[in-house]
Amino acid sequence: MILPIYLYGNPVLRKKSKDIDKTYPNLNELIDNMFETMYKSDGIGLAAPQIGLNINLITIDARVLAKDEPEMKDFLRVFINPKITFNTEDTIGIEEGCLSLPGINENVDRIENLTTEYYDRDFNKITENLIGYPAIVVQHEYDHLNGIVFVDRISTIRKRFVKNKLNNIAKGKVATSYKVKL
Question: What CATH number corresponds to the domain at position 122?
Fold first, then answer.
């Protein structure tokens, strides 16, 4: 089932999410719905707050980027209760966009190398070191679980340039090819 994407301005995107366990109701169905919603929206990642749920759940399928970013060729993941446990100080700047902020793309500095611990959809505990683009994608989605959107990480001057766009998104004055919710 395709779910609406919550847009910038909705309070759910600013709340810190909570851990879940394997008894979370209809978890596998929710994960499948998140992937379906992400694919229909042409996204590569989706965090539960973006569909109105403040739980620590992320879906990512970045395999579509493999032509330009070979390390993404097998990057299909479900992150339940992720934690970033280690990161370097080295950063990389890359242009980001977000399904909750349609029409806005800005350069964001992200940690280039990190380690994350999470549970997969079968609740197997995984520890994974991510370098480059995989680390960037995970950080973007992980931020959503902490009430952060990528424009929070851009310079003050760039925020001024996108202020009108952000206001329009918050008012629903934005065109998308996918279902949204204010």
Answer: 3.90.45.10
Radius of gyration of the chain (CA): 16
Catalytic: which of 96, 106, 112, 141?
A: 141
**141 assigned to active site:** yes
Q: Provide the number of structural domains found in the chain.
A: 1
- Which DSSP string do the residues of 70-106 spell out, in sequence order? GGGTT-EEEEEEEEEEEE-S-EEEEEE--TTSTT--E
CB-CB contact of 54 with 47 (8 Å):
no
The domain in which residue 136 lies consists of 5-181
- Single out the residue of 48, 50, 36, 31 nearest to residue 97, CA to CA: 50
pLDDT digits (tens, 9 = 90+) for 51-109: 999 999 999 999 999 999 999 999 999 999 999 998 888 999 999 999 999 999 999 99
Tokens of 83: 């934690």
- CB neighbour burial string for 56-91, b if at least 16 within 10 angstroms, e if fewer: bbbbbbbeebeeebeebeebebbbbbbebeebeeee
Residue 115 CB neighbour total at 10 angstroms? 15
